[in-house]
Specification:
heterodimer, A: 136 residues, 3 helical TM bundles of succinate and fumarate reductases, 4 helices, 2 strands, B: 116 residues, mainly alpha
Chain lengths: 136, 116
Amino acid sequence: MNPEYRLYHPKWHRRKVPIFWWLRKWSYMKFILRELTSLAVVYAAVLLLLQVVAVSRGEEAYANFLAFLERPRVLAANILIILGLLFHAVTWFNLAPQALVLRLLGRRIPDRVVLLAHYLGWLAVSALIFGGLARL
Amino acid sequence: MKGRSIEPFFWSLFSSGGMLAALVLPALALALWVAIPLGWLQAPGHQHLVALIGHPVTRLCLFGLIALASFHWGHRFRFTLYDGLQLKHLFGLIATLCYGGATILTAVAAYVLWTF
């Protein structure tokens, strides 16, 4: 490779793109919002881990954690996070038929079947989680 | 980079983490962090949770969920920074921070769940 060539600096060939290019159009906005749902995912992972830590530290720490979750600001933040998680789930499942091309007896399984299977799976898992936690 | 690229490996972590997060997290978050605080669902007792998390299978599932969710974030957020903020020239630094952060979170989860 030519030592003069730098992978991410072909600036002389490129128009400058403004940092907030994605504010111009709703479809660009939606793309960035979808990408940002990864923050909601990692937040949920961290909060879940903190909840495990609280349980491991004893009854009092667990009670304190439950009280923390009841604070209005924490609750509001968590509702916002859940909206992010829902957006992640819906956009993820809607892309599944394009990512997953399945064939059966030489014919491609139609997109809506793949889509339906994902949503049914989501429903089943969600029902299991709610049912399981309600029984504890 | 010589030889085979490591990119497909990170992509597979991103992909399985995204699927797991989509299937599990909305319901889990809604139950634990909204329904229980609002009293729609009764909070599970401490002893029940200790017994549940004490089971190795539960801990393995929690570890898998947290680790894959972390790497899902690491991979996706890396490209969010490249594309959204036009930071392609910080390629190495951003990749290190994102995958490094995911690795640290995975290690912490392993420690917490192993010593539970």
